[in-house]
Amino acid sequence: MEQKKVSLFNLAVIVGALGYFVDVYDLLLFSIIRVPSLKSLGLSAEDIAQKGSDILSIQMIGLLLGGILWGVLGDKKGRLKVLFASIILYSLGSIANGFVHTLGQYEMVRFITGLGLAGELGAGITLVSELMPKEKRGIATSLVAGIGLSGAVFAYFIRVQFVGADGEGWRNCYFIGGALGFLLLLLRVGVLESGMYKNIEQSDVKRGNFLMLFTNGKRFKKYLTAIVIALPNWYVIGILISFSDKFAGLMKIKGVIDPGKAIMVAYAAISIGDVGIGFISQALKSRKKSLWLFHIITALSVLWYFNLEGQSAGTLYWVCVFLGLGTGFWAMFVTMAAEQFGTNIRATVATTVPNMARGSLALVALLFKSLQPSQGYFRSGWITGIIVFVIAFIALALTEETFGKDLNYIEQ
């Protein structure tokens, strides 16, 4: 009965949203200031594209490994402790980004920052999911992601404000991210630990056993499908939008494309989509139906993207808006993952699943690159997309419905 009294705008939801705001700001900042930062380190235009992709993949590998680390600790030590530790690490990492002077240093600190960023979303969604009544759970987690994802828009405007025409000033963008992270720690003080977690904390129940996800066939299938549902998200963001300037050149788009602006408009739409999907799921009383809707919007937008030959820069930016709207299912995808598993491994799942999905960008990028020698850059882009969507659609079809599911149970 106590859980039903929890307000949709309680401190855990508000702080979770602000925490994810800082997380997304730091996560997307490299993509937004990739060109000026790498240019200032002395890289050529060709190297900026190649090395930029490599750094992004290194950052995603950090997220992948960090997801496992923070997920296990979230179940063993508690959701709040992980939130504090991860915020400190990514805030320090962000500040360190502002002091790099070589490519090797940049790669190392983006990896460290990725490790830190891996803990925020999963622990936050787990905490909010366990604190909120099931009637409000989907909307609450959607608000966390919707507000949080606007951090990418903020990052773009910070770049506009601090990065001059000569490309200098990009270091200040990282310093701001680090400062925001430390300010967030002050807000975290008033957030309470999940009651569901407290109930098992002193018991002899196995908590945070990552291997449990692989020792049972049914459990492994749920875990794997939960991850690959989100493959289109990072294919769209990590390839189509992050390298929209390169694709625009190949499609003879009229006008100059700024990848930072493309990311900004996409994430503005993603934040709208992430809030909207919570209400759509509530109206349909189905997580799966809402995800099918957003996947179809994304697939149609990708088809539009690859048929922009000779169009204007403005049209490409509009396509980025629709790509963002379609991929605005991040909160719902993580919420569904959390709802499929017991309290003793829920943080492990909710933290590793989004970071496995993020880390999968390295594999998607590898596929994209491996196709280029024989298929060329443009053709490799849409072939990669077809493979990604086929896998995601199969996974979504195999995923169980979790709307209204009771979360107070233990995974045996």
Number of strands: 0
Instruction: Indicate the percent of residues in helices.
Output: over 70%
- Total number of helices: 18
Rough outline: globular
Low-confidence regions: none
Secondary-structure element order, as H and E? HHHHHHHHHHHHHHHHHH
The proportion of strand residues reads: under 5%
Radius of gyration, CA atoms, in whole angstroms: 20 Å
C-alpha end-to-end distance: 26 Å
Q: Whole-number average pLDDT?
A: 88
Structural class: mainly alpha
| Biggest β-sheet description | none
Structure explained in plain terms:
- This protein is an all-alpha fold and 412 residues long.
- Helix content is 76%, strand content 0%.
- It has helices at residues 11-40, 45-76, 79-97, 103-117, 120-131, 134-149, 151-162, 170-188, 195-201, 217-228, 231-241, 244-250, 259-284, 287-305, 313-326, 330-339, 346-375, 377-398.
- The longest helix has 32 residues, at 45-76.
- The radius of gyration is 20 Å and the shape is globular.
